[in-house]
Amino acid sequence: MMFIGTSGWQYRDWRGRLYPAGLAQREWLEHYAAAFGTVEVNNAFYRLPERETFARWRARTPDDFCVAVKMSRYLTHIKRLRDPAEPVARFLDRATALGDRLGPVLLQLPPTLRADVAALDATLSRFPPGVRVAVEPRHASWWTDEVRAVLADHAAALCWADRCGRPVTPLWRTADWCYLRLHEGRARPWPRYGRTALASWVDRIAERFGAGEPAYVYFNNDPGGAAVIDAVAFARAARRRGLTVGRTPSRAPAEPPHPRG
């Protein structure tokens, strides 16, 4: 199964594209969840919601909806993976209010954080076996066999990441599931992805993961509704490849306007 969605859902410039012009913003989550089967909650990185907020998201979404949650920056950027016990426990105490809606937890590391294998191992050890964790390092010192082995030991996925149509991480398979984030394409209008780039990512996933191994794919290029348009195009390419794809809109919303100048 391939779960395809966007990184967040509350973007004002999606009004009139994904969201009908007259739809109240308080109803956007329900509308989004009727169109997509998954979302990545990015704002938890900046301010960890209370448990009641996660519980409300669970109540407002369908039974088959999946919520990936980005770990609070308190652990990744302030503590820099040191002393992970309390931050992970607090995060899980709140995020588990999603119940069966809780999908993978994303640990995006700061670009200035050099590889610290012991800290990574200690952090991953704090997550229970039933919680899938994806790690997105952003410093080249992390691309070592030792780091790869720690991820594999914990069945944690290396988060594959794309910027401008190119992988910015190794394409390691460290778990029996995949996590991919697409940050910015090279097509026009910016920051859209072209068909070739999207098809290439579909092929990479299909070549490395088999039936029964889920792939979570999130588009983080939100300006102008680009993420929604590209997610629909990616789903279409995956279906053409013969892959099973979760709920996505049947067609893309209105194209964002071309930039002036």
Automatic annotation (TrEMBL):
Pfam families: DUF72 (PF01904). Gene3D superfamilies: Protein of unknown function UPF0759. It comes from the Bacteria. Transmembrane segments: none annotated. PANTHER family: DUF72 DOMAIN-CONTAINING PROTEIN, UNCHARACTERIZED PROTEIN YECE. This is DUF72 domain-containing protein. It comes from Plantactinospora siamensis. The lineage of its organism: Bacteria, Bacillati, Actinomycetota, Actinomycetes, Micromonosporales.
